[in-house]
Write a structure and sequence with these properties.
FAD/NAD(P)-binding domain, nine-stranded mixed β-sheet, about 35% helix, about 25% strand, binds flavin-adenine dinucleotide, FAD-bd, FAD binding, FAD-binding domain-containing protein, flavoprotein, FAD_monoxygenase
């Protein structure tokens, strides 16, 4: 069918670039109805890569069977507590002040409307789970039909439009695949597909830092991760404890690492780069004028540097004056066998999400490739899952309505509708997460961190913190 100059064709064959959370979820959303092939630059899906997520709106978006499988691989998150150093003098039992204490189940039950509808399951339990990224990826892969292949060692290096119709993807091993009616870039924060969508070409990636349109926020993050011993199995629920320190913030939590497996523990430090004030460089020495890498591949600190990263984290623990009374953080740092160092970057949210080619095929972005956000609200994976379902539904709807004059549906309208549903919530989370990142790390040393702690406590008392948390957690895919 011809609409204007562009032929509207059904989307029968989709090439997905990236087998992370967004790519695998999109394959679930399209399975059986559209032919899907997934390509990833990595050599395999390694269950031990990365740390963990708290899934809420993302979990609620999965269809029932997948939701159950993901929940079984994780552990329910029961509570979030926020502590700072004791402001009113240490007592025998208390060497910290509690800024906020949230019981997740209670919090959701006390809310109403869309919060309870989406985040409480049939048994009245919260859809809120703590899961390692590796375990989530494993469940998503294992539950895909065998008709959907995942091809590894395929780093996308080119996209070309074929005269005969469709799009051909070229990879760094010299091979190519296609033609596809649609290519979806689920290739994360350093997306080659995004470059194509925005510039109509993919250039050789030049540096190990972020793409030129991303700005270093001056906030650094360190993750220490350790798998617990067999005794520490998935029992009851998990708690996340956040600590507001002097010039730094820490988070401790346990995550389900797959059904029946011991849990995985994580200690995270968020702190300001001393050579930056916000995004502005203040280093005097030329050698210090280096932005910390965004580390899109989550490359681990190499073995030779593991010990120095560990001792850096132990000194930071002291330096930040973190009230690690039960030595939870210290124990994870001492035993961690993987440590990741990342710089947090700000990605321009006003770029394009799709490009329709002259021959009627298209290239679209999903997940971090479309809406990369700072990690401080724990929403990156939740939003990636929701965007994947939203895009999947829009594609299926387009195929169904195409050819029926009553709808007058076009690819352009379909892709615009996808962006319209997903841009606003992801943009809203982006700026709140950025603000939170500076708030957590702000305050400086000694008495100067008191205003920050008081502000956070007040936000808790007036319900703003709860509102922000729940507002971000409610799924928005329609
Ligand atoms: C190994 C790894 C571990 C992570 N661990 C954590 C974590 O512990 N906590 C957290 O908050 N976030 C983590 N993240 C980021 C988090 O997964 C995302 O922010 C979020 O889930 C959105 O997912 P996504 O699928 O859009 O992107 P990602 O999960 O980043 O997945 C992108 C995928 O695309 C592939 N890819 C990239 N470029 C190309 C290319 N040119 N050609 C082919 N494939 C390509 C990558 O190999 C990757 O598999 C991790 C990311 C990675 C890659």
């Amino acid at each position: 069918m011809l609409v204007g100059a562009l032929e509207q064709k059904p989307i029968r064959r989709v090439g997905v670039i990236g087998s992370g959370v967004a790519g695998l979820t999109l394959a679930h959303a399209l399975q059986d109805l559209v032919q899907v092939e997934i390509f990833d630059a990595r050599s395999e899906l390694n269950r031990k890569e990365g740390a963990g997520f708290q899934l809420n709106g993302g979990l609620a978006s999965f269809e029932a069977n997948l939701q159950r499988a993901v929940a079984e691989a994780g552990i329910p998150l029961e509570g979030i507590q926020s502590r700072s150093k004791a402001w009113f003098g240490k007592t025998e039992n208390q060497d910290y002040s509690t800024l906020l204490q949230l019981n997740i189940n209670e919090l959701i039950r006390q809310a109403s409307g869309e919060v309870t509808d989406s985040l409480l399951d049939d048994k009245g339990m919260a859809r809120w789970t703590a899961i390692t990224r590796g375990a989530l990826q494993e469940v998503l892969r294992d539950n895909l039909p065998s008709t959907i292949p995942i091809r590894f060692n395929k780093k996308l290096t080119s996209i070309s439009e074929l005269e005969s119709g469709g799009v051909l993807c070229g990879f760094d091993d010299g091979s190519s695949s296609g033609p596809f009616d649609m290519v979806v870039g689920c290739d994360g924060i350093r997306s080659a597909t995004k470059e194509y969508v925005n510039t109509a070409k993919i250039e050789e990636t030049k540096t190990s830092l972020a793409p030129s349109n991303a700005i270093y926020s001056g906030i650094r993050i360190r993750f220490a991760v350790v798998d617990e011993t067999a005794e520490d199995k998935q029992g009851s629920g998990a708690k996340l404890t956040q600590y507001f320190g002097d010039g730094g913030y820490a988070l401790h939590g346990k995550f389900g690492a797959g059904k029946g497996r011991p849990l995985t523990s994580m200690a995270v430090f968020v702190y300001l780069d001393e050579n930056y004030i916000g995004p502005f460089q203040v280093a005097k020495e030329k050698k210090d004028r280096v932005a910390v890498s965004e580390n899109a591949d989550w490359t681990q600190t190499v073995e030779q540097q593991l010990e120095s990263s560990r001792s850096n984290m132990l000194s930071q623990l002291k330096g930040f004056n973190i009230p690690d009374k039960d030595k939870d953080l210290e124990s994870v740092i001492r035993n961690a066998d993987r440590i990741y160092e990342l710089g947090s970057y700000f990605h321009n949210p006003f770029t394009r999400w799709s490009r329709i080619l002259k021959n009627g095929s298209c290239v679209v972005l999903c997940g971090d490739a479309a809406h990369a956000m700072p990690p401080f609200l724990g929403q990156g994976s939740n939003q990636a899952i929701q965007s994947a379902y939203c895009l999947g539904n829009k594609i299926l709807e387009y195929n169904q309505k195409l050819g029926d004059d009553k709808y007058n549906i076009t690819l352009e309208k379909t892709l615009a509708a996808y962006r319209e549903v997903r841009w606003k919530p992801t943009f809203g989370i982006l700026w709140k997460a950025l603000f939170l990142g500076y708030l957590e790390t702000g305050g400086g040393n000694g008495i100067y961190s008191k205003p920050r702690d008081s502000f956070f406590q007040l936000m808790g008392a007036v319900g703003v913190a709860k509102g922000v948390l729940l507002g971000a957690a409610v799924p928005k895919i329609m």
